[in-house]
Structure formats: C-alpha cells, structure tokens
Amino acid sequence: MAETISMGTILQGIGGFYTARDDDGREYTLRAQGKLRRERTKPKVGDRVEMMPGEGEEHGWISRILPRRNELVRPPVANIDVIVIVAAAATPDPDLLMVDRLMLNARRAGISVQLVINKADLAPESADDIANQYRGADVSPLKVCAATGAGLDELRNRLRGKVHALAGQSGAGKSTMINALYGLELETGDLSRKIDRGRNTTRHCQLIPVEGGGMVLDTPGFSLLESALFDPVDLKDSWPEFAPCEGKCYFQPCYHATEPRCAVLDAVAAGQIDGERHKRYRELLEEMKIRWRDRYD
Ligand SMILES: Nc1nc2c(ncn2[C@@H]2O[C@H](COP(=O)(O)OP(=O)(O)OP(=O)(O)O)[C@@H](O)[C@H]2O)c(=O)[nH]1
Ligand SMILES: [Mg+2]
Ligand SMILES: [Zn+2]
User: Same domain, yes or no, for 84 and 62?
Assistant: First the structure.
C-alpha cells in the first residue's frame, strides 16, 4: 500500500466505493479503512478526507475523515455551504409547507438557504406571491426560468465558489437548473413520466465540481424532510422574520401562535410578517408539540 497521504473531497459513494477528488482535480476510487468502519464513521459525500491513493488500477483507502462543518442525515452529505431550495411557481403546484420544512432543517443544520422560484414563465403572479411570502426570511428569493435561462446568471454569481445542494419537490426543475447553470447533462424528466414511474428521476447523490471553484450536489428529490426532534419552544428561532419581535411579547417565552399581546401576531396583523408563512409555522409548531409530547412513547 502506498504510504503517501493526500487530501481530497468525497464526490460520490456507491456500494462502499467512494470517488474522491484531490485539490489538483485528480479523481481516485477509494474504500474506507477498517478502523473507520469499526468506529462506525461512514464517509459522506462532501467529506474532506485523508487518503492513500491506490497504485495503478487498485483502489486506495480513506484513512481519516476531517471534522465536519455541518452534516445531514438524509441525504448523507457534509460540508454544504448553501442549500438552494427550488420551488416551482406552477407544475407541480408549489408545496410551501415542504419548502418551510426544508428551510427549517437547513437552518437547524447550520446551513444557509437560497430560495429559487423556478418556472416563473408558467405563472409569473404565483412566482411574485411566493417571493413576497419569504421577504424577511433571510433566503434572498430569486425568480428564474431554468427552461430559458432567465435569472440564472444572477444565481450562478450568488453560488460561485460555494458547495451547494439543490432541494425541492420532484419536478420543480432542479436537474434542469443544474444543467442550465453549468452546461451539464443530468437526467431530467417530464412530470407525467415521473408519476407513471412513481419515483424521482435523480437517484444518486453526487457532488459535481463546477466553474469558479464551487461544487453542486444533485440529489434524488432531496429528502432533508425528516426534521430532528427538539423542544417546540425553539422552533421560532428558525424563522428569521420573527427576530425583530423577540423579547417584545407579553408572555416569555412565547410560541408566537395564539398568545395574547404577542409581538409576532401583531406584526402579522400589520402585514409586516406574511400571514401564510405564519400559518405554516403554526402547523409545524403543532406537529413538533405532538412529537415532543410523545417522545418517550
Ligand atoms: N416551463 C418550464 N418548465 C421547466 C422549467 N424548468 C424545468 N422545467 C421542466 O420541468 C420538468 C421537471 O424538471 P427536472 O429538472 O427533471 O425536475 P427535478 O426537480 O430534477 O425532479 P426530480 O429529479 O424528480 O427531483 C422537466 O420536464 C423540465 O423540462 C422552467 O423554468 N419552465
Ligand atoms: Mg432531478
Ligand atoms: Zn409571541
């Protein structure tokens, strides 16, 4: 076994074989050393690793995984800078509760969010409405059309040099967007075909190096939907638009749900915080309260 140790980033892992890329852009096929398996640390896509490259056609070994800046369980990825949440203005009908769940889970993982509203060509008013609902949510809503490329230069600039993952409903246009942003040819699918087959077009997680030093992660529909269980009183901390109200409610702490003299409810009534977004917050709050109450069952 070669003794030289070099550094790389895991781009892909299938069936216990990993593809890693070193800082000069060379790619290697690797397996995890037994000690990692014994420690039950499994390399994730996005991991920075120490590796011993194989000789010739032989695969090499991953000898160490560097500490992660952040990580997700599903999909199993690490060290993501930005989660790009893609919502279609129409076709499929936007599921904003799902968007909010994705946002919540990104925030809990300590990853920043860029909201992209795709298919603005199909329903411009719906696109405006979605952008408006997320004002103040610290997600910099951007309306684009992956089909024509409109708005994609701006998106590419915002993502330059960053490791970013696209998340969102199946059919929202994630793969189409990645292809249009970076001149790639990932498989995309029309909606009717997806429904026929009952599954996503994209099936593996892979990190793809792109121009400008960043990397993009295409994922199967992007699960990221299963949220961790935590005290529901902390849920509000993941809604940045509530921050200016914090500490101003009559009750402390306040769930910002139905309490009298709640500064968030006042802000909703005054139109400073979007009412739909607040309604969905309450839905997620109820869900978390139940999960929290039943956590020992
Ligand atoms: N009209 C219009 N259609 C689009 C746009 N972007 C994508 N589409 C179409 O939407 C369909 C779904 O696109 P995909 O890129 O496969 O969607 P996806 O989000 O990757 O879906 P999964 O891989 O299943 O999660 C395809 O038929 C695309 O051609 C757009 O901006 N406007
Ligand atoms: Mg796809
Ligand atoms: Zn309150």
Answer: no
Q: What is the CATH number of the domain that holds 213?
A: 3.40.50.300
Tokens of 151: 């708005």
Domain final position from 44, 67, 90:
67
How many CB atoms neighbour CB 125 within 10 A? 10
The per-residue pLDDT for 57 is 83
Over the stretch 68-117, which tens digit does the pLDDT of each residue have? 999 988 778 999 999 999 999 999 999 999 999 999 999 999 999 999 99
Is 223 a pocket residue for ligand 1 (Cβ < 6 Å)?
no
148 and 267 part of one domain: no
Q: How far is CA 6 from CA 3, 12, 31, 139, in A?
A: 10, 18, 15, 36
**Which domain does 44 fall in, by range?**
6-67
pLDDT tens per residue across span 114-129: 999 999 999 999 999 9
Residues 101 and 163 in one domain: yes
Residue with the smallest CA separation from ligand 1 atom 22 is 170
> 111 CA to middle of ligand 1, Å?
25
